[in-house]
Specification:
The complex is a heterodimer of chains A (77) and B (341). Helix content of chain A is 39%, strand content 25%. Chain A has helices at 11-26, 39-43, 68-76; strands at residues 2-6, 32-36, 52-55, 58-62. With 341 residues, chain B is mostly helical. Chain B has helices at residues 2-24, 26-37, 45-75, 80-87, 92-105, 113-122, 127-139, 142-152, 154-177, 187-190, 205-240, 247-250, 257-265, 272-284, 289-301, 304-310, 316-340. The chains are: A alpha+beta (77), B mainly alpha (341).
Chain lengths: 77, 341
């Protein structure tokens, strides 16, 4: 699975990236994590409020930093 | 899971009476603490400075926590997507009014200014209307409203919201009339806005309360230090700096003080939590209300970092026009209030 973190480098985006990496590691999920900082790329996902979490090209969470629990739920469903 | 959620729903309801008791008994509690527990001599500079801090800091924090919690819940009803939808194809003036109003309640962080700008322009929201939103969103800040209410009363808070709205509406309207689309970076109009196909999240009331908690956690942990520092400066000035100290510099008679305050405010980047206690000190020491308000609006409404971010989508002449119009608006507000009060 390919996980993308969309964000232009704001503190919240970094938090989301860090949390996602932790969740992936702790649960032994097989995934590649890509940080997308290019605004044109971000716009392709129709995001107006960063950060966003994209799983296999589908936007799962946008505009907020979810709890680790929630990240785990969206990654494993 | 459900049980845990239910608890989250009841805690705020149970805390509310406690909050009320604490808020309304703060003065006697402070006096008791200062006079009886610490046994300091009444009227001494240090005692009064301490009394000011011990009273003001919890008061402001109590107000902040409650309001941010409520604002967090309200904001969960307003997403940028919904706001954009509401603004699509609106006639200019109505659009400006709506955009400025929605700017207050829609969650916004200056780091999201670019995707938001692109999203608005892409879906056909006029440039001027987009600006009304971009001006109101940072300038009318809930933390500032709470602090102004707590330190100056509801009238000053209302003046701040009302004039902030007026500036955002009129500045956006003027930018729209000037037809400045040529000063938007051309790539903006080529950006392909995808549709993420994600449905609007359907939130239950419990998860909206959750967003209230999240907002409190995020904002209070970020601003408490600034509030403390601001009030500390206030407490220090309270007993030690002579009254009328600022009168010659920022008083009514100094006509140049308003443009100067606005200019100084632009590069100063502070969040509302830090600036309002400072403003209260300025006023107490002789600065006039209009000048102090203009200074505050310039600090939180016109910020250099945000302009640097916006430079990616706007050419310099447009940024200067934007700053010029908003800056003039703030100055007019300043002069108006110096004249009225």
């Amino acid at each position: 699975m390919v996980i993308k973190i969309l964000g232009t480098g704001c503190p919240k985006c970094k938090t989301l990236e860090k949390m996602t990496r932790e969740v992936v590691e702790q649960n032994g999920i097989e995934a590649t994590i890509v940080k997308v900082e290019n605004i044109m790329e971000i716009m392709k996902y129709g995001i107006m409020n960063t950060p966003a979490l994209v799983i296999d090209e589908k936007v799962a969470i946008k505009g907020r930093v979810p709890s680790a629990e929630e990240i785990k739920i969206v990654l494993t469903r | 899971m459900l049980h845990k959620m239910d608890k989250k729903l009841w805690i705020p309801v149970l805390l509310l009476p406690l909050w009320y008791l604490a808020y309304h008994n703060l003065q006697p509690m402070t006096d008791w603490f200062i006079d009886n527990v610490l046994g300091l001599s009444k009227g001494a500079h240090l005692t009064e400075a301490l009394r000011f801090f011990v009273f003001e800091f919890p008061k402001v924090m109590l107000l902040l926590t409650l309001i941010i919690f409520l604002v967090g819940i309200v904001r969960s009803y307003f997403t940028p997507e919904r706001t954009r939808k509401a603004l699509e194809g609106k006639k200019t003036f109505t659009g400006n009014v709506m955009a400025a109003t929605l700017g207050i309640v829609t969650p916004f962080c200056s780091c999201s200014a670019i995707p938001l700008f692109l999203g608005f322009v892409e879906s056909g929201v006029p440039l001027g209307v987009t600006f009304s939103f971009l001006i109101a969103a940072p300038m009318i800040n809930e933390v500032a409203i709470v602090l102004l209410y707590g330190m100056f009363g509801w009238k000053v808070a209302a003046i701040y919201v009302g004039t902030g709205l007026a500036i955002a509406i009129l500045a956006g309207w003027i930018i729209g009339l000037l037809k400045l689309e040529k000063w938007v970076e051309p790539w903006v109009y080529q950006a392909q806005m995808g549709d993420n196909g994600m449905e609007e999240e359907k939130l239950t009331f419990v998860s909206r309360i959750q967003s209230g908690y999240a907002a409190v956690k995020e904002i209070v942990s970020k601003v408490w230090l600034y509030v403390a520092l601001g009030i500390l400066v206030g407490a220090g000035a309270h007993g030690y700096v002579p009254e009328e100290f600022m009168a010659s510099l920022m008083g009514k008679t100094a006509w140049y003080s308003i443009p100067l305050s606005v200019l100084v405010g632009i590069p100063l980047y502070s969040n509302a939590a830090g600036i309002v206690p400072i403003v209260s000190v300025l006023i107490e020491k002789g600065a006039s209300l209009g000048t102090a308000l203009a200074f505050m609006m310039s600090v939180i409404g016109l910020s250099l970092p945000e302009m640097v971010i916006l430079r990616k989508v706007l050419k310099l002449p447009l940024i200067f026009t934007f700053v010029g119009i908003v800056g003039s608006g703030i100055m007019i507000v300043g002069y108006l209030f110096n004249y009225i009060f």
